[in-house]
Amino acid sequence: MNIKILPNEYWWAGIVNEGTRMPLGVEDRAVVDFRNVKTPNQASPLLLSSAGRYLWSDSPYTAVFEDGEIRTDAPVEQKEGFGTLKGAYLAAMKAHFPFAGEDVEPLFFSRPQYNTWIELMYDQTQEGILRYAEGILEHGLPAGILMIDEGWAEDYGRFSFRAGAFPDPKGMMERLHEMGFRLMLWITPYISPDSAAFRELEPKGYLLKDASGETAVRRWWNGLSAVLDLTNPACEAWFEGKLRGMMEEYGVDGFKFDGGDPDMYRDDDRTFRPASAWEQTRIYGLFGKRFALNEFRAGWRLGGQPLVMRLADKLHSWEENGLNTLIPNSLIQSLSGYAYHCPDMIGGGEYQSFRENASHLDTELVVRYAQAAALCPMMQFSAAPWRILDEAQFAIVKQAALLHESFGPYIARLAKEAARTGEPILRHMAYAFPGQGMERVSDQFMLGAEILAAPVLKKGERSRLVKLPEGSWEDMEGRLWEGGRTVSVDAPLEKLVWFRKTGGR
Q: Count of alpha carbons within 13 Å of 151, Cβ hemisphere only?
């Protein structure tokens, strides 16, 4: 198919990890490849236009932007006449990924989250987890959801805590609950070869088979593992039973569902029922709906589902897959129907990058990252800010966390509305204010219809330009600004720039 791009028309593609490339206009040359299974984040086969048009296909396709046209290598559904980016999104959402009114746990939005990954990495221990949780409270941060990350189990497919590292896991969970935390465990759909689980599951046909009919053993970031065949209802029941068992035995509240990346699957895999690589990723996501507390990173066509979607692990960097991607990629999540999204761990969650920079962490980056996350739907800590920052810097980060908590009821209300209307929580400026030249603004966003957030995203900057939409705006210090213009705002390190639209929602 060939689609002519209109003058002053811009397009966004539903590939979350490519947010910094968006939008694409009449003069741009680019390839948007929904067939590429190497993406580490969510994707949906959707193209949205600022002129009220959209393209969709249930199957992957490639779209080439060149010479003022979009050329697709397969038939796609083309719809138009919806006026604006918002109109196109709402039409596509209702037709292809409708929200069903299923609420997400409000605590995700009303309190900061905490993850033990960067502090403990693969050495998760009862002592270390309790020390991290105690540090949160001792330093005046509010209790919230605490995620115990990878390393709590002996191997993949074993659903019990490492005996030496966790002398009393149930007691640990009870203590954490008493401290006010809800608890999630890191989990994957992978099974360690030559393990008890592998020997149990392979004869039952619960493990994925390759094109030759042999049990597939695939390489991922932690080595080689077999993969659960979740197209098999009996395998699903086994997996759910193991997770429910941990909830009952230890008091776990939910799970961080990592893995499930499409490049762990193949289109020619022999599965219980036929499923492409992308479809197997989707099935893993739908499985997670069974648990009220869930988090995913990979996903395919899961817009509208009551699933928490995190951005892929970011480098400890300003420009290279770091803070520079937080807002652009979050905007693509919103425009793809992933309303309940988290902008990765503050300071970056890519552990090798954090380890390489451990002796010279950029503390300014950590502060600005916390501010950028503060008015997102969720914010998540991992590296203990009281450990890596000085007293003044930590006070700024704590202020950002408390600001997020103060907005908690507002964000939770937006999440509840999203479940029923499909409206994003975090919104692109062009979505909220069509016809005002906001299409290429990707360093500020709207939180609902009322709050404009404009965090500093570049090292050393102590002021920034903000494109204020038409109307009247009140800044964080109570001063009124007339919109319809670009303004320069002071932004010392301790200041997160945000405005409230006056005159109601």
A: 18
Strand partners, 451: 447, 500
* C-alpha 274, offset from chain centre: 28
Residue 470: other Cβ atoms inside 10 A: 12
With H, G, I as helix, E, B as strand and everything else as coil, classify residue 52. Answer: coil
Burial of 435 (0-12, 13-18, 19+ CB in 10 A): exposed
Phi, psi angles (nearest 5°) of residue 415: -65, -40
For the stretch 267-300, pLDDT in tens is 999 999 999 999 999 999 999 999 999 999 999 9
In this prediction the pTM is 0.96
DSSP E strands in 137-279: the ranges are 145-148, 182-187, 190-191, 217-220, 223-227, 254-257
pLDDT digits (tens, 9 = 90+) for 459-482: 999 999 999 999 999 999 999 999
Q: How far apart are CA 60 and CA 37, in angstroms?
A: 10
What is the CA angle 112-355-442, rounded to 5? 50
The 10s digit of each residue's pLDDT in 119-144 is 999 999 999 999 999 999 999 999 99
Distance between alpha carbon 481 and the CA centroid of its chain, in Å? 33
Write the burial class of residue 42 (CB in 10 Å: 0-12 exposed, 13-18 middle, 19+ buried). Answer: buried
Beta-sheet strands, E only, within 232-311: 254-257, 293-296, 299-300, 309-310
Q: How far apart are CA 146 and CA 130, in angstroms?
A: 11
CB atoms within 10 A of CB 505: 7
72 in Cβ contact with 297 (< 8 Å): no
Please report how many Cα atoms fall inside a 13 Å half-sphere around the Cα of residue 68, on the Cβ side: 4
Reported as a single tens digit per residue, the pLDDT across 316-373 is 999 989 999 999 999 999 999 999 999 999 999 999 999 999 899 999 999 999 999 9
Task: Please check whether residue 329 is in contact with residue 22, taking contact to mean a CB–CB distance below 8 angstroms.
Answer: no
pLDDT at residue 64 tops 60: yes
Q: Tell me, what amino acid is at 209?
A: K
Q: Are strands 69-72 and 62-66 parallel, antiparallel or unpaired?
A: antiparallel
Please give the backbone phi and psi of residue 472, each rounded to the nearest 5 degrees, phi first. -110, 140
Rounded-to-integer distance, Cα 210 and Cα 199, Å: 18
DSSP codes joined into one string, 241-292? HHHHHHHHHH---EEEE----GGGS-TT-B-SS---HHHHHHHHHHHHTTSS
Per-residue confidence (pLDDT) for residue 183, from 0 to 100? 98
């109307």: which residue's tokens?
Answer: 471
